[in-house]
């Protein structure tokens, strides 16, 4: 935890799921725009990363992109 803080990373709203495991989940889920939107709204770091992996860019609107931050 201390090592991450020097990069400005806090442990709040993090699940500790590794990127390789997120990639595996994304592969199992496949593209799913509706689920990606729900995951993004959680504001949990790994959920948002997974959302970016499973979303369909063709369905993503400009309004949704602006809402990301």
Structure explained in plain terms:
The chain is an all-alpha fold. It has one domain (13-67). The chain has five helices and no strands. The chain has helices at residues 2-5, 19-29, 33-41, 45-54, 62-67. Helix 2 crosses helix 4 (45-54) and helix 3 (33-41) packs antiparallel against helix 4. The chain is flat and about 30 Å long. The two termini are 24 Å apart. 9% of the residues are buried.
Task: Describe this structure in a few short sentences.
This protein has 69 residues and is mainly α.
**Rg value:** 13 Å
**Count of β-strands:** 0
Main sheet overview: none
The count of helical stretches stands at 5
Layout of secondary structure:
Layout (H helix, E strand, L loop, with lengths): L1 H4 L13 H11 L3 H9 L3 H10 L7 H6 L2
Helix pairs in contact: 2-4, 3-4
Tags for this model:
flat, 69 residues
């Amino acid at each position: 935890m201390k090592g991450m803080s020097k990069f400005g990373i806090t442990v709040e709203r993090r699940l500790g799921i590794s990127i390789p495991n997120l990639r595996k989940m994304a592969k199992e889920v496949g593209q799913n725009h509706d689920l990606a939107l729900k995951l993004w709204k959680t504001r949990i770091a790994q959920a948002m990363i997974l959302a970016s992996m499973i979303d369909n860019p063709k369905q993503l609107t400009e309004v949704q992109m602006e809402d990301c931050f």
